[in-house]
Every structure is written in C-alpha cells, then in structure tokens.
Design the sequence.
C-alpha cells in the first residue's frame, strides 16, 4: 500500500478549550492514519497549557478504507454532509440528457410530495431530498417549481448537487418556454443596504480592520451579518477575546537602528511574508458571490497562508485553481460521522496540494448563537417558521461527528471559542500562561493563536509571547463581504503597516527579534507580574534564548 505524508496543522477544540496543532501526518492508505504532533495553535479559545500536547504517540484511525475510487467522488466539504454522495463525473441517465421539459410543466411540481426545481437549466426532482436538506425543507419548497439557480449558487458550492441521487436529474428546461426575467423589486431592507453600499468608501480608504466591520453591518444581508458576527449566546467569550489584548502592554526598546526590517518568517515550514493566516471560516459566499476565491487570491497576492474551511462555499477545485504558482493552502476538517468520508477528504486535499490540515475538534456540542438564528428568521419572514429554527452555523454542521474521542485522536489536547463554548479563557491569556508555566513547549512545537485579533499590535503581542503565527477570521469575512478581493487585500495591507510600525516602535526589525519580555501584563512589572523570558536553551528559534536586550 502507498504511504502518503501530509503536513498537518490541527485546530484542536476540546473541553471548552481550543488549540491548533501542526502535525506531520502519515496517512497509511491501507487502514490506519498515524499522527505525530509537530505544532500547536491555540485557537479562539485556549487550552490549559499543561494539556496542550497530547501523548506523542501514533494512533491508528481504524476502519478507513482509502481507495482511489472513494476519493475521486469526494465533493466539496459543504456538500459532503454524510449523505450518500454521487459524483458529478458519473454518467447521467440517458433520459435526463435527452428530455426537454417546458417551464409550464416544472411549475406543476410544487409540493412536499412532488417537488421540482431548475438549477442552471437542469431540472431536478428533489422530493426525496427535501426532508434531509441541511437548510431545511421549507428553504427548497419556497423555490419549488421555479428557477432556483440564483439562491442555490449563492449558498452552495457548485458540486453540492452531486449529493442528490443520480435519478434526481430528470431533464433540461426548454429555454424557449422560460418567462422573461422579472425586474427584481427590492424590499425596504435591501434598499437600505443598497444605499449604504453606494455610500461605502473604497477598500483603500479603510484605515482599520474595524472599519470593515462597521460597513459589513451596514451592507451585508441579515443572514450573512448575523452568521459572521454571532458568537456564543452571552457573547462573553467573544468580548473576552478582545479584552485580553488590552491587558498586555509593550515594553519598547529604543535607540536601535530601525531603518531596515522585515516581517518575513515561516511557520509549518511554509515561508510567508508575514506571520498571519486567514483562519478557516465558513460560507464566504454569503458575503460575496465569489466567496473564498477572493481570500485565496488576496492571500496569494500578498504571500500569506489561507486556511480553507471545511464548510467553504466554493469547491476545493475552485480554490486550488485560484492559487498562484506554488501558493500554499491549508485545509480545515471536521471529523465526519462517517470516518471514511473524512479520510477520503484528507486524501483529496493532499492530492490537491494542501500543505497542512487544521483539525477542528471542539464541535461535539452545539453552540447557542441566537443572533445567527434570529438573522435567519428575519431573512425568511413570511415563510412558515420551522418548529426548531436553525442558524446557518447549525444548518451546516449536521454531518459532524459528535462521538469523537481520544481513541480517534489521542495526540491532541484542547478546544473552539467565542463562537463555540462560553466561559472559555482568551487565547492570548493562555499563550501568556504557556509562556509563564511551560516555556519549554515553545521549543518542542509551533504555537499559533486566533480569536479577537484586530490590529498589528495584537499580532505583535502574540508573536512576542511566542506564537509563530496568528489567524484572523471575521475581519476577512467582513472585508470580503464589503469589498471582495480588494477588501481582503486591504486587510493584509493594514496589518502589514501596523505590524511593521509596532515592531519598529518596539525596537525589533525582524520577527526573530520579538521577545517575550517586550510584552507583559498592564501595570508595574514587579513580583508575580514580572516580564517573562524565554528559556535559555540553545537553538535557532526566535524564542529559544533568554534575551540579552
Ligand atoms: C437542489 C436544490 C436546492 C435548493 C433550492 C436549496 C436551497 C437552499 C436555501 C434557500 C437555503 C437557505 C436556507 C435558509 O436561509 O434558511 C439552503 C441552505 C443550505 N443548503 Fe440547500 N438547496 C438545495 C440543495 C442542496 C443540496 C444538494 C445540498 C447539499 C448537501 C444543500 C445544502 C445546504 C446547506 C448545508 C445549507 C445551509 C446553509 C445555510 O443555511 O445558509 N442544499 N439551501
Ligand atoms: C462566520 C465564522 C465561521 C467559522 N467557520 C469555521 C469553520 O468552518 N471551521 C473552523 O475550524 N473554524 C471556523 N470559525 C472559527 C475561525 O477559524 C477562527 O477560530 C475565528 O474566526 C477567530 O476569531 P476572529 O473571528 O475573532 O478572528 C469560524 C468563525 C466565524 C466567525
């Protein structure tokens, strides 16, 4: 059997705590996946430092049958929801290719017992799929008998249709029978948002990441804004993520030559122009029709890493094709109820060229995000309300395993965050705790954090405390929603400028010169509040020597 190696970064989320772990994974194509932890990233929520690293054992992930045929039919993750999946490449039934059906006929199939829709000129009988549609039965019934191309492509990766049974495709619509497109009448809400869009400054006029957030609230649909912005019901952890950054202050070094410098570095063995990455966040198409493609292009343009969400709204092929030559992409995965589905997906992203995998493990429980659910309810006003209304988050997570344990993954310890579990500590606090209590961990593994990072100064605080890179989620979603690729690029430019300035003011001309003692808790640094130093162990990492500054 072949043996393939994947360099894996894991987004570990466990016990109301969260971390991202970089691993070198050896995937044994026969029946086991072996892991070997290489790095940790504390995500939105943070792990107890002593629990960050799991046993450095290798663990078989059993019953995984990885054959070429399984992964060839793997669709994009959002379509890959634990339902039987049918490859688009499979031959369509002959009758479907031949049959031209009039629009008038389609319009007759509008009930839960007999439901047809048109998508990109093809007609699908989706009666049997209605009950298991992740977005709910009503979402499709509203489109029954109509051309649903627009709403479908706005919310779904194009290969979502391969989730439908083959026989669902029953023919093509006779184009001569289609009515002339109706002029769209905007609702009051849509008019308000359109007016705001006209007023909105260009991307290059945005000066802070928060400017994108302000405009995102004005111009995004209710569903998009509420889903992107939502956190746990009480918002405690979300606020805490932000507030943590104001608890740490800089101790600048001055009178050093700062005329040259650079933000270049590497993490996970990937050379980058600066140590930030686009955190994996779902459903970018809710904000912009090109979805995650904008993020891929902006990341490629500026030489940073993008982590693709398992629930991306573009297909994997679309995103890997949007790359520049040699552009590194990493992929985030949730463990599927069907373990072999996850294994096939891993094989697929490895084959496409992903440099690392982020493995999210903190979604064993649902998260109460009222804002997301209300946003959905507002957007579907007028339609019969479902008995149990779901937000976008819940709708797209149905396939995730709820029974994942250490026997699936025994090499990691950790958790998610402001969005997932309430009352979890802020990643920055955990990073500081790790630096204080287990500085040796930074020598063994790469640590990354995300959650609440909104400025270059935030980035620099995390780097100085020992993070190899930091991730940003919402700022990229907001900027994508307001300005598409230009917005995502602008976020990177703003961060670059702020990181460079902060580093100069701190007296660090390279990332390697950032030291833990340059950051510490606010107030006088005495007693228990004293600055922290990296352990005096030799090596070439930026944080492995007691600073002589
Ligand atoms: C075939 C015609 C389909 C139509 C007309 C359709 C329509 C919709 C609509 C209107 C929503 C939004 C629901 C809301 O905002 O409350 C939705 C959500 C969703 N659909 Fe579909 N869908 C179709 C097929 C599929 C297929 C084949 C899949 C594959 C698994 C799928 C997966 C999802 C998911 C994951 C969501 C949740 C995202 C969200 O709530 O925004 N859909 N769908
Ligand atoms: C709208 C949204 C969707 C997200 N989707 C995912 C996801 O699909 N997978 C995942 O591992 N994390 C997901 N996250 C979490 C992010 O990876 C990241 O941890 C978080 O956004 C960082 O916090 P920040 O948004 O304050 O920067 C999502 C976050 C948001 C806001």
Sequence:
């Amino acid at each position: 059997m072949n043996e393939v190696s994947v360099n894996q970064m894991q987004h570990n989320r466990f016990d109301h705590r969260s971390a991202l772990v970089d691993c070198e994974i050896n995937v044994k194509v026969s029946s086991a996946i072996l892991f070997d932890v290489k790095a940790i990233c504390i995500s939105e929520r943070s792990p107890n430092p002593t629990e960050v690293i799991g046993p450095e054992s290798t663990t078989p992930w059993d019953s995984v049958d990885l054959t070429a045929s399984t992964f060839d039919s793997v669709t994009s993750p959002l379509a890959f929801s634990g339902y039987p999946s049918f490859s688009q490449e499979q031959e369509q039934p002959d009758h479907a290719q031949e049959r031209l059906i009039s629009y008038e006929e389609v319009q007759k199939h509008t009930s839960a017992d007999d439901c047809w829709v048109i998508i990109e000129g093809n007609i699908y009988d989706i009666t049997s799929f209605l009950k298991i549609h992740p977005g709910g039965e009503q979402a499709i019934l509203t489109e029954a008998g109509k051309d649903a191309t627009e709403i479908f492509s706005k919310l779904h990766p194009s290969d979502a249709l391969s989730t439908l049974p083959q026989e669902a495709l029953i023919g093509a619509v006779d184009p001569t029978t289609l009515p002339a497109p109706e002029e769209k009448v905007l609702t009051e809400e849509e008019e308000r948002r359109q007016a705001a869009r006209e007023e909105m400054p260009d991307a290059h006029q945005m000066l802070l990441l928060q400017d994108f957030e302000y405009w995102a609230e004005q111009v995004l649909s209710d569903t998009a804004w509420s889903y992107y912005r939502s956190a746990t019901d009480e918002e405690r952890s979300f606020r805490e993520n932000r507030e943590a950054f104001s608890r740490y202050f800089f101790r600048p070094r001055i009178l050093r030559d700062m005329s040259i410098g650079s933000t270049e570095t590497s993490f996970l063995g990937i050379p980058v122009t600066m140590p930030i990455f686009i955190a994996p966040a779902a459903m970018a198409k809710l904000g912009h029709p090109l979805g995650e493609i904008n993020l891929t292009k902006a990341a490629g343009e500026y030489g940073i890493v993008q982590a693709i969400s398992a629930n991306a709204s573009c297909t994997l092929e679309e995103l890997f094709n949007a790359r520049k030559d040699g552009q590194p992409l990493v992929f985030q995965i949730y463990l599927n109820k069907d373990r072999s589905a996850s294994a096939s997906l891993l094989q697929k992203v490895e084959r496409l060229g992903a440099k690392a995998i982020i493995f999210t493990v903190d979604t064993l429980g649902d998260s109460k995000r009222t804002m997301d659910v209300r946003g959905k309810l507002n957007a579907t006003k007028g339609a019969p309300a479902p008995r149990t209304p779901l937000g976008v988050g819940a709708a797209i997570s149905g396939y995730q395993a709820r029974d994942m344990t250490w026997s699936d993954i025994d090499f990691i310890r950790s958790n998610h965050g402001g969005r997932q579990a309430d009352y979890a500590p802020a990643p920055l606090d955990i990073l500081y705790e790790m630096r204080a209590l287990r500085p040796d961990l930074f020598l063994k593994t790469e640590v990354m954090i995300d959650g609440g990072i909104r400025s270059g100064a935030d980035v620099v605080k995390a780097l100085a405390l020992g993070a190899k890179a930091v991730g940003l989620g919402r700022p990229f979603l907001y900027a994508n929603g307001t300005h598409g690729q230009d917005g995502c690029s602008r976020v990177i430019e703003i961060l670059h400028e702020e990181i460079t300035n902060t580093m100069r003011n701190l007296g660090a001309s390279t990332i390697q010169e950032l030291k833990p003692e340059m950051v510490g808790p606010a107030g006088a640094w005495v007693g228990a509040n004293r600055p922290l130093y990296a352990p005096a162990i030799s090596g070439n990492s930026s944080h492995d020597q007691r600073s002589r500054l």
About this structure: The mean pLDDT is 77. Residues 78-79, 81, 117, 124, 126, 133-136, 139-140, 143, 148, 151-152, 155-156, 160-161, 163-164, 223, 376, 379-380, 392, 395-396 surround protoporphyrin IX containing FE (ligand 1) (CB under 6 Å). The two ends are 53 Å apart (CA to CA). The first helix runs from residue 68 to 72.
